[in-house]
Amino acid sequence: MIYCDFNSSTPLSENLRGFFFELPFANPSSQNRLGKAALKHIHQVEDYLDTHFKLNKRYISLFHSGATEGCNIFVKGCLNKGDIFYYFDLDHAAVLKQIPTLEQAGIECIKLPLDKSLSFKKDEIFKVFETHKDKKSLLNFTWLHNETGRCWSLEVIGEIKKIFPNILVHVDATQTVGKIQNYKEIDHADIFTYSGHKFGALKGIGWSFFKSDLLAKSLTHGGGQQKSLRPGTLNTQGIVSLKYALEELDTKSAKDLKSIFKVFRSHLLEQDLIIDFGEFQNCSQNTCFLVFKNLQTQLVLSALDIEGIYAGAGAACSSGVFQESHFMSSIGLAKYAKNTLRISVDPYSAPQDLELTLAKITEIIKRIS
Ligand SMILES: Cc1ncc(COP(=O)(O)O)c(C=O)c1O
Fold it and tell me: Which of 81, 149, 197, 337 has a CA-to-CA distance to 92 between 20 and 30 Å?
């Protein structure tokens, strides 16, 4: 098996072996000693996250089931009738699919411009913000795009917060952990959201960091855990798995995979198999995005699958049915929306393994085209 779908889900961290039975099973909200022991493990993870992400207690952690829930808690929870929601077509479905509900609730949803470079078009975007600057609003900022690996700098958020204090910024940081060098250096935004299964922790666990003065209404009601913002019994095993997976990442060092992908892409370009989508200046080194001239993704995915190579297309982790690339229409390439392929590998792969994998993929693509 050759697994090239890391942006959907990663294999479990080696550090998780056997850890399930080491942890107290009691409810971390229970007042007995065993419950308190479980809660202690959770507090240790909170402290670990604060250190790992260099937060210096500037943010509070909220645990949830993953980025989909996190995006919903903070987008819906922070906005009210008359407010504005800013988004991009490259945002994940966890964000985009909220739009009809937000509009029904009287929240104006404004799509921000994108072009083929998928960069943050500051001048144009700031003009839009200027027009609505007196209104309370929330901007969803996807730090690293799951399909293309395109990465945005967080610096612009500092400027946004200075010039437009009424804008809350939610950073969808789901894809960043372990993939970009500065993923620990979070700053400026009001909220950051993550998912454990993107870096070796369990599925069904994620968290968000948010500023202590943030006002968000709760979407669910229950036993008052996590200051009632996301009540429900805390998932001790899931939460501890986050720490174990992050600790394993800290023992690894990233290799130069970008140059290998560059050679691979230029080879396919020479053969006239893909369109020249260009190189992104700032990009995750584990992801290679291809847009085929004439080949449909479904055909390519099946051919790779038969050979035991598992890749992906469309937004990482959607419902399991093939989905065309949503953002392609936004950048004027709708006719290729069903022709994209995402090869996303372990950011810590050995370069020679990646070279072998890409040679096999090239061979298969040539054979079916
Ligand atoms: C950028 C981004 N946001 C949100 C999600 C949703 O994550 P989850 O399915 O873990 O809730 C994903 C999944 O791929 C993603 O890539």
Answer: 81
